Amino acid sequence: MSSRIEDYGLIGDCETAALVGRDGSIDWLCWPAFDSDACFAALLGDRGNGRWKIAPAADATNISRRYWDDTLILETQFETAHGAVALIDFMPPRGQASDIVRLVRGLRGKVEMRMELIIRFGFGNDIPWVRRHDDRTSLLAISGPDMTVLRTPVETRGEDLTTVAHFEVSEGDTMPFVLTYGPSHLPPPKAIDPDVALRETKEFWTDWCSRGIYEGEHRNLVMRSLITLKALTFAPTGGIVAAPTTSLPEKLGGARNWDYRFCWLRDATFTLLALMNSGYTEEAMAWHNWLLRAAAGAPANMQIMYGIWGHRRLLEWEAEWLPGYEGSQPVRIGNAAHAQIQLDVYGELVDAFHQSRMTRLKLDEQSWSLECVMLDHLAEVWDKPDHGIWERRGDGRHYVFSKVMTWVAFDRGIKSAKKFGFDAPVEKWRRLRDIIHRDVCEKGFDVERNTFLESYGSKLLDASILLLPAVGFLPPDDPRIRGTIDAVERHMMRDGFVLRHDPSEESSYEQQPIEGAFLACTLWLADAHVLAGDLDKARVLFDRVVAIANDVGLLAEEYDPIGSRQLGNFPQALTHIALINTAHNIDVALKRSDKPAMQRSQ
């Protein structure tokens, strides 16, 4: 059985990423890119679906781990009755090929180690041919288009379709293992020097971190979140995946298991704020350019998510041979939600471009033309039902947050046109903006309960309504906003964390059990408190989220406070983005600034 979600660490080369368990097992890796087939899929099955484990042969008496300061180099220390070793795992920034380097260093005494490599291409289903290569100093595994090469001075052997090795490490020894991916129709990739790769990887990450400007009280955690965000960036295009995993469940044993190895337009503004507030203008520009390319084309055909290259077809299918994480089925590859209508993404995109201009990013001239065409389309469809921010599968509804974000689209279009002198039908946009505002306040607000609702005609709440003050729909001190915050706190919290769906819903949409608390939503509540001037409440919520980060600072999508476990795909970009932004927000508020950094430019 795979480890708990929070027991994994992340390594990556800014084109793909792997999850490394506390037990020294790499249980998840899609190679050569985030959206490729997995060659290690034990995370969603068992060891027979592929993994790479290096650990003491005998049980460890203690295991601890850490990232090297300001890097994505993960060190796990194993203590045994006979000594101690360190396992150093990293992926060098992508060169001619993609490599995983694992160094076993003796720290004390003498420790017997075991290495077990099980390559299973095709999401754990395809057993490769394995043969010796290069005078028997390396091992090739080939299946269809895929090839890996293992290079190590340690003697290996085959055992039940598994490559194994037993070796001893004494104090001062270092045993290297390098696994490299390459297309099977080409010669094997050239070997790299593990020591040089370690030095260059450390320099890459420390140099990158030195560009950051965040110096608040939570610097270590914010920098870990920024490093994670960088690791989830597909360097060739600038796209940022929501997570490197698929089908980690929102509820153990449930069916809400989705593929998050794609890029969501909805995260656009939050991502830009996190990067720009932290000093990473280059990454913000790369993300903006990815957004522009991905969204180019007819506005009616704009999707809510795209592939890492900007591709549109993300066909969903099920890997029936995988039993799922702790039996949570199905295991889904691809994401059918890409074809949904979600009106809020228009607002996110226009808002992202507006934020970029306000922070003086040099935008492509096509940006404004694209926005105008999108707003023309939005004028025709803003009053249609959609599937909402949480991507409900079923009939569309008039979601309040979707309507509010169409208001944001016209509001930011007007402000960009006025501030930067763009030619635009400002009066038309102003009329539409005012119509949408009245529509939301009349149909999306419950006067008796003094709160905004999930959707028109509903009595349910929904965590996305916490974002209304952040986007400027109403002032933070408006009684309707304060009433909404109060309602969320009364009805949508579980043990101090915010649920994204109203618990009184009773699975009416999808006949699924209620999921864990959504960590980004808990941070959105903290932001709402900062904007409303309730800084103490905001800090309590922020500290609560920080406290459930794992031992190396990583967070999943959700948290089950009853079972004290993280849930959902991991690590989750939106959670780490929200953490960065809330930390900025609180720090600026502590300095008595007039406008918290998290509040979008209005």
Task: Explain this structure.
The protein is of the alpha+beta class and 602 residues long. It has two domains: 196 residues, Beta-galactosidase, Chain A, domain 5; 380 residues, Glycosyltransferase (Alpha/alpha barrel). It is 31% helix and 22% strand. The protein has 13 helices and 28 strands. Helix 4 packs across helix 13.
Keywords:
2 domains, Glycosyltransferase, alpha+beta, Beta-galactosidase, Chain A, domain 5, 13 helices, 28 strands
Tally of separate domains:
2
Number of strands: 28
Note the total helix count.
13
Assess the beta-strand content as a share of residues: 15-25%
For the largest beta-sheet, the strand count, sense and barrel status come to: 15 strands, antiparallel
Helix content: 25-40%
Provide mean pLDDT, rounded.
93
Secondary-structure-based class equals alpha+beta
Q: Report the CATH topology name of the largest domain.
A: Glycosyltransferase
* Shape descriptor: globular
The CATH architecture of the largest domain is Alpha/alpha barrel
- The CA-CA distance between the termini, in Å, is 50 Å
Task: Indicate the radius of gyration in whole angstroms.
Answer: 25 Å
User: What is the CATH C-level name of the largest domain?
Assistant: Mainly Alpha
Contiguous uncertain segments of 5+ residues: 506-512, 595-599
Oligomer: single chain
